[in-house]
Amino acid sequence: MPPTPSRAEHAGVAGTRAAAGTLAVSSLAKSVPGGRLLFAGLDLTVAAGEVVAIVGESGVGKSTLLNILAGLDDSDAGSVAIEGTVLGGLDEAQRTKLRRESIGFVFQAFHILPYLTLRQNVALPLALVSPDAAKISARADAMLASVGLGDRGTGYARDLSGGEMQRVAIARALVHRPALILADEPTGNLDPATAATVLALFADAARKGGSAAVIVTHSRATAAIADRILTLTADGLRDQNGG
Ligand SMILES: Nc1ncnc2c1ncn2[C@@H]1O[C@H](COP(=O)(O)OP(=O)(O)OP(=O)(O)O)[C@@H](O)[C@H]1O
């Protein structure tokens, strides 16, 4: 039995997707090497099309949590499931496959490749999971258009401004219609006006595409676009409304 539902076939233009793109985290605990506890008893469920922001003091473990959700780091206890697939049950090759097919990343270090065109950069996640070059190009162009760069597909990434690069990163994170989008300060270093535009694009694309999105941020303005804002503490995640 394959470890994950395959999105490779339906990540193309037609793009039907499963109804439940849900992240389910249960009783997660993590200590840093050396023993200091970061958090314990952490529960989190994010529904398809829902955008959740995680805030918290510097050093509390937000990036560590994001890495655990991505299967890039291991928790000490608890479980993470993406569309019902529990990460702890996967070997490294299966985790890599799940990341490619089911997760989109918008991390601070964008890894946009300067000597590829915008279309090639955005197409990369799809090229890893689908052999259909024509569909890949069409989908990459549609994503570029959705972030306002539809006429720039054949231009090179090295010529972009910071804000344009962030928009390419968002288009690339969403191009394969991932079940889960993980974003770490997606608008870091942008001026407030550009940040607001980029965030609106991000949230709109996640909601319309039915992806569950988790954004880690220090910015109140960034957190404000989320459906829920959760504060990370040593006791886990606390709803800002007290829930
Ligand atoms: N490999 C490691 N060895 C020891 N300590 C580590 C290691 N990785 C992370 N830490 C510590 O774990 C804590 C949590 O780090 P993390 O980057 O997750 O916090 P954060 O909430 O994202 O912080 P910030 O908001 O400042 O980015 C920090 O105190 C960090 O120093």
Task: Using brief descriptors, characterize the structure shown.
6-stranded mixed beta sheet; 243 residues; single chain; alpha/beta; 23% strand; 7 helices; 4-stranded antiparallel beta sheet; globular; binds adenosine-5'-triphosphate; Rossmann fold
Describe the protein.
Belongs to the ABC transporter superfamily. This is ABC transporter ATP-binding protein. By secondary structure, this protein is an alpha/beta fold. It has one domain: Rossmann fold, CATH 3.40.50. 32% of the residues lie in helices and 23% in strands. It has seven helices and ten strands. It has helices spanning 62-69, 92-102, 118-127, 133-146, 162-174, 192-209, 220-223, and strands at residues 23-31, 37-46, 51-55, 77-82, 85-86, 103-106, 180-184, 212-216, 228-233, 236-239. It has a six-stranded mixed sheet with strand order 6-7-8-3-9-10. A four-stranded antiparallel sheet has the order 2-1-4-5, with helices on one face. A hairpin with a 5-residue loop joins β1 (23-31) and β2. α3 (118-127) packs across α4 (133-146). The longest helix has 18 residues, at 192-209. Bound molecules: adenosine-5'-triphosphate. Residues 32-34, 38, 56, 58-64 line the site of adenosine-5'-triphosphate.
